Amino acid sequence: NNTEKIMTNKNLKKKKNIWFETLIALTATANLALVIFNLTYVGWRDFYLRNLPQLQEIYDPIKGIEPHRETQNYLETVEEFESLIGESKINSTVSANKLEELRNLSVEIVENNPFAGASKSGTLEKIKNQMRERLDNESSKDAFSIFWSQEYLSKQGLIKELNFFNQKIKPLISTNYYRQIGENGEFIDKFWIIDLPFIILFGLELLARSYYIKRRHPGFSWVNSILWHWYDVFLILPFWRWLRIIPVLFRLEKAELLNLRSLRRQAQQGIVANFAEEITQIVVVRVINQTQSSIKQGDLTR
Predict the structure, then answer these.
(1) What is the rounded distance in angstroms from the CA atom of residue 46 to the CA atom of residue 60?
(2) What sign for the dihedral angle of Cα 121, 180, 78, 160?
(3) Among the listed residues 233, 237, 224, the one whose alpha carbon sits nearest the alpha carbon of residue 205
(4) What angle do CA 152, 165, 44 make, to 5 degrees?
(5) Distance of alpha carbon 238 from alpha carbon 191, whole angstroms
(6) pTM over 0.90
(7) Which of 82, 115, 150, 181 lies most in the core, judged by the most C-beta atoms within 10 Å?
(8) How far apart are alpha carbons 91 and 86 in whole angstroms?
């Protein structure tokens, strides 16, 4: 009966540990997913802008991203022109003034390249190529100037040309942005606000584990106790966050959510094989050197 009670208590303790390890492993995995999302956000921003604009609106401030004033002003001017068309004819003086403003802004965009700051000069080239092809003109400046003219819009059809702009040109211009730079010369990134609760949680958990290990092994120092689970240190580092994949893998395996035994076995075999190859080469080289030395000194003849 005593043996059964002991086994039952061990099983209950193991189940509690598995639940706790599973919770921590899933939390670490969620944190790693956020880290990867943050690292790839700028590169994938165009995708989020097209498919998840709500996400882009929420996360842009975290990365210090805001609309570029020059391109934003350009799009707002186009919207003003479209609203004027609903109130007056295209040949009116008000429309003519707005079209002239659009022609000037178009030339400024081509010359100043406001896309360069966001490393999106290729997007500007796409816009210029679209306009060259639409107007059949080798000069992008001339193409824009012709496009935003009363004569062209009246002849080609105002609605059709505005639809072309809104479907082909506007989405490309909308992808441009300005990213704020901090006093340290680096781009602003407020991901630490999201990451801080995770770091606190993992830090407290690491301290609790280290305290428990130190009690079980009185001879251990705090450093030794912490290094007992060395991989967890990566979870509390505010830099090199991508290294958190290491503790996540360990945690998932410990929670029995991932089996890495075969991978570890292959890695160990690879290390042993490389070590054996190095030893073999050293032995062979030393034997050859010794043989050469013996021949030169006449030991082999004697």
Answers:
(1) 12
(2) positive
(3) 233
(4) 160
(5) 10
(6) no
(7) 115
(8) 12
